[in-house]
Amino acid sequence: MKISYTFDLQSPLRVPDHWPIRAFGGTVTLVENEGLVSGVKISFSGQSVHLAPTLTKLDQGRIKANITFRDGALHKDVEQRLHQALSFVQCFFPIELALGAVKTEFEAEDDSEKAAIELHEFSRRNQTPTTEISFDMFSRALWASDEGFDASFIASLNVQARNSLSEERYINSFRYSFMAIEAEYGNGQFKSDKLKAALKNSSDFRRVLERGIEASGAMPSRIRTSSDDIVESGDVDAVIDHIVVRRGHYFHGNRKKRDAWLPNAQGEAEALAILGVNILSAIAVEHAAPMFDNKLSKRHYDEAVWSKAQVTLVVIFHYRRRNMPFLDRGKLQMNYPGNKPSPLMGLDALKNFITEFEKGDPLCELVDAKCIDQATGFEVFKIGIPNETTSVAGAPPVLS
Fold first, then answer.
1. Cβ pair 3, 105 in contact under 8 A
2. Residue 220 burial (CB count, 10 A)
3. Among residues 165, 27, 180, which one has the least CA distance to residue 107?
4. Rg (alpha carbons) of the chain, rounded to whole number
5. Least confident of 23-32, 58-67, 223-232
6. I need a labelling partner for 150 at 20 to 30 A (CA). Which of 43, 196, 359, 387 fits?
7. Which residues have CB under 8 Å from 295's CB, separation 6+?
8. Taking the model in full, what pTM does it have?
């Protein structure tokens, strides 16, 4: 059986001429599409059919079958060796493999192997989810910048740390995070003992570190190390001691040391990277505080009115006064900046409605409520409160 792995490149290359070569015990070919090289294909002949994936059919549920891959060791070895090989080219050109984008092919090399191969091709590609944010994040950012505030230093490190974490470059991710920690709270110290003392004596850092430790609890690393145990202990001083020591290892590690870090041994730094990103996120939130000044909230609304971008939501509701046999009808109108209702707007309108209803008369029982966009009639939300005494003679109909 022949197994082939095609690894996509992050960006296409122009290679004027190329041909198959032998390397890694197989055959390596550059994949070309419309004059541009988009990937690297590595094929291995004479492989056992026992490395082919198996399919197990399922009788129930949406998933029709389970796929069990048995070539994991070969796949990992090939990918690691390809990364290592491209590191030479990276000394001159910015060439990288696309994270998680690989096509695997299993091809029978004689008739006896055909029946044993249940799955002939499988492609995997990491999908980047679409980020959804509200427009006021842009407007607030523009006005905060216009007033002279600047979050670019922390933001640039935050982006690099997050990107490195998602690309499984955990060592780099931790480095970017610690650069921010040291710059913000290190008080100019770089010797380990003095740096530890500066961080431990900073109430501001202890606050963001506690947030980072709490957030890391929901993001367990795949390879458990001593870093996981220390972070899970919640001991702030112990965590500070640990990250400063690991900073020395990853920033200043001598390659001649017996335990020197290696670029292909990223797993040992995953827990550190997760903690670092969570600390840096807490730092970034504090640097973004000027965006959320109350005066910018008012300005956002005023600008929407100036642009005639305003949504009027109307809530019609039924309620019963305590110990009364009939229902009353109420109406609440709310104005929001925007051109159309959104899920976030609907959630905020629901919260505001409940707050206003409870303030109006705490003794009243809400029966149902329906919110619509006044301009289009679009239904934003509808709720009903179960109540065994709702249906009484002469009561108005429940909203439908």
1. yes
2. 12
3. 27
4. 30
5. 58-67
6. 196
7. none
8. 0.74
